[in-house]
Amino acid sequence: MISFELSPEQEMLRKSIREFAEGEIKPRAVELDEKEEFDTALVKKMGEMGLFGMFVSEEYGGSHAGYLSYIIAVEEVARVDGSAAATVAAGNSLGIGPIYYFGSDEQKQKYLPKLCTGQALAGFGLTEPNAGSDAGGSKTSALPDDNGWVINGSKIFITNAANPLTSVVTVQAVTGKKEDGKKEYSCILVEPGTMGFVAKEMHGKLMWRSSNTAELYFDDCRVPAENILGKRGEGFHQMLKTLDGGRLSIGAMALGGAQGAFEMALRYSQERVQFGRPICKNQVIAFKLADMATQIEAARNLLYKACWLRENRKPFGKEAAMAKLFCSEVFKFVATEAVQIHGGYGLMKEYHVERFFRDQKLLEIGEGTSEIQRIVISRHLGV
Amino acid sequence: MKILVTSKRVTDPDMKIKVKADGTGIVTDGMNYKVNPFDEIAIEEALRIKEKGGGAEVVVVGIGGKDAALEIRSGLAMGADRGIHVLCEQAVDSSVVAQILAKVYETEKPDFVIMGKQAVDDDSNQAAQMLAGALGVPQACFASKVELAGDAKSARVTREVDGGLETIEVTFPAVLTADLRLNEPRYASLPGIMKAKKKKIDEIPVASLGVDTNPRVKFVKMTEPPTRKAGVKVADVPTLVQKLKEEAKVI
């Protein structure tokens, strides 16, 4: 059965998050971007709105609203600001996700209730300075000793991992060698303040300037044995599963961003008068808008279908990669045309569309570049 | 304590509206709807009174077709306890609304009613006053501040009137209406929306209330505001002053 109708709750959610985003996020977005400032008060407000833990069951403090509801929420936040959407998407997919799906009951009880209210944030440490697309080349190691694990190495570009709200970071580390000689990976939970662990905020970003990005350093950092997430040796599998879900939220950020940029371009084209009439009356502009709207509609349908597959417990890895790839490329096209329609004003920071143009670029790179998505998709095709 | 609030489904005031070519109304295709913003303020005030303690029940009433349930549900998502949906497909005017609400009032027997001062679609600003009249109870409209007495049997209401503020005291039961500055309504949070799913909305067919639903106001025609005529450019300041004096007669 095909149904394109959202539930009344999802309709209400979209409306409410849109009003919240317009009223609470948008007014400060330009200023926070300019100052490169991460606003913890905003994180708490977003927590009160229920933006964290939407796919988590109620016993751990979540709202169990479903994956599509989560995707709609990310989309609506991204419609006004990429940085705030990054905090939400990373907070859920990468922060809460691995602990919720792979953690022990004890770990879930310990971290999830605070993560689900926005009183705390968690990071997911995968990328290393010399291991980006080649995640298998990561070198950070965790060696067992009598009292637990000793971690050495470093991670880079880790969202939500170096701010006053960070309560834990999930770190992927090499924990030994498997029988076939390949590296054995495990995920280990490390809390800020642990001796030998330093998280440093990264600055000088092109995009997502008011989100929190960190470099993590581990120097003989010792954590107890029970800090391992799930079983030893499951780290690689956990990472792949986490990224499959993460791709949907990256898709949602791209879709929401494209929608926001399109709406700005549409409004501007109706108000901007040149040669005695609004510029949208020129076919060259009208056709741009038609193409933008068409691309966005196609992107939304692809992303929602991938969410539907996931919610109905069907394989969704291929569609998630397609949605991430397509939505982020649609956003690139829409953001570029939106700036073009704004002309000179689109190049100025006081116009939000300028920020969307910069924020767009990350989505083709983060959580698997567009090139890597094409590898993932082609492997699903059996080539 | 029980507080009765209203939630009217109105066209989104932020959208551009188009009048139908035959003047019988506006084009509703692709139109977004929402809770009347003044009703949201009224709901917020009822919730704040409830949250101050005393264990009030907040009941939200809506009148309209099946679709109007979404706006009642929005009130429940903000935190109201229970909904009443008077199913009514036909168009109603303020007088019919007041009569319907009077019937609901008789069954529910709330301590007081608080509703938006007017709906942003037709801007009539009459239903609350007519309701108070029909019930024979005091009214306190355009409230910018509501303070309940210690025994919760009356309220001190600050009203926004021409030229300033007026403070009056009304004994309950009474009808209050919310003005813009009474409060800033909360956003419906996701947990609130999920909880609202489980809250009850009673559906009452309008026919069962025994109300004469024939509107007293006859709708004649709707037209777009006339488009503004182009201005004129004047050559210099003396010409401008002369035109302001002789043509515009403003100086």
Structural commentary:
The complex is a heterodimer of chains A (383) and B (251). Chain A is α+β, with helices and mostly antiparallel strands and 383 residues long. Chain A folds into three domains: 8-120, Acyl-CoA dehydrogenase/oxidase, N-terminal domain (Butyryl-Coa Dehydrogenase, subunit A, domain 1), CATH 1.10.540; 123-233, Butyryl-CoA Dehydrogenase, subunit A, domain 2 (Beta Barrel); 237-380, Butyryl-CoA Dehydrogenase, subunit A, domain 3 (Up-down Bundle), CATH 1.20.140. Helices cover 52% and strands 17% of the residues of chain A. Chain A has a four-stranded mixed β-sheet with strand order 1-4-5-8, with helices on one face. A four-stranded antiparallel β-sheet of chain A has the order 2-3-7-6, with helices on one face. In chain A, strands 9-10 form a two-stranded antiparallel sheet. The longest helix of chain A has 37 residues, at 235-271. Chain A is globular and about 80 Å long. The mean pLDDT of chain A is 95. Chain B has one domain (2-246): Rossmann fold (3-Layer(aba) Sandwich). In chain B, a hairpin with a 5-residue loop joins strand 7 and strand 8. Helices cover 26% and strands 26% of the residues of chain B. Chain B has helices at residues 37-51, 69-78, 94-108, 127-135, 190-196, 237-246, and strands at residues 2-6, 9-11, 33-35, 57-64, 82-87, 112-116, 139-148, 154-161, 164-171, 174-178, 201-205. The mean pLDDT of chain B is 93. In chain B, the strands form two sheets. In chain B, strands 9-8-7-10-6-1-4-5-11 form a nine-stranded mixed β-sheet, sandwiched between helices. In chain B, strands 2-3 form a two-stranded antiparallel sheet. Chain B is of the alpha/beta class. Chain A binds chain B through residues 8-9, 11-13, 15-17, 19-20, 23, 48-51, 54, 63-65, 69, 73, and chain B through 34, 69-70, 73-74, 77, 187-194, 196-197.
